[in-house]
């Protein structure tokens, strides 16, 4: 076998042939009068590539609006939750609800929730 044969000049163009055929078919369809078909294929390809990017940024925007960080009103444990959800504090197991960006204790109807206020005692002398 001759080591200096034409195999040295051979290029691997296997992927290029597919794309040339695809572009040729698109050009032929456009020339025949089926431009609407070419446009619809291009629009579909555009949507396939743009939709995941829009979904990613849309999810980030939604998460920034609905993710709430704060402290448990009972034990002051740092929490993260979504707006309008209910869960239990992992530290004190108290049922909590996220309302308007704050963590609120979830109590059954009819329960009166009070906060104690510390008052200093003064002696009155007669």
Automatic annotation (TrEMBL):
What residue ranges are annotated as transmembrane?
12-30, 36-59
UniProtKB keywords: Membrane, Transmembrane, Transmembrane helix
Return the protein name: Uncharacterized protein
User: Which species is the source of this protein?
Assistant: Neosynechococcus sphagnicola sy1
């Amino acid at each position: 076998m001759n080591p200096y044969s034409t195999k040295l000049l051979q290029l691997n163009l296997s992927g290029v042939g597919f794309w040339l055929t695809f572009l040729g078919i698109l050009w032929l369809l456009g020339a025949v009068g089926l431009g609407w078909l070419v446009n619809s294929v291009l629009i579909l390809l555009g949507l396939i590539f743009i939709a995941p990017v829009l979904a990613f940024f849309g999810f980030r925007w939604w998460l920034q609006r609905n993710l709430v960080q704060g402290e448990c009103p009972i034990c002051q444990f740092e929490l993260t939750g979504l707006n309008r959800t209910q869960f239990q504090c992992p530290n004190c197991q108290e049922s909590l609800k996220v309302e308007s960006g704050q963590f609120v204790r979830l109590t059954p109807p009819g329960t009166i929730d009070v906060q104690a206020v510390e008052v200093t005692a003064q002696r009155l002398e007669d």
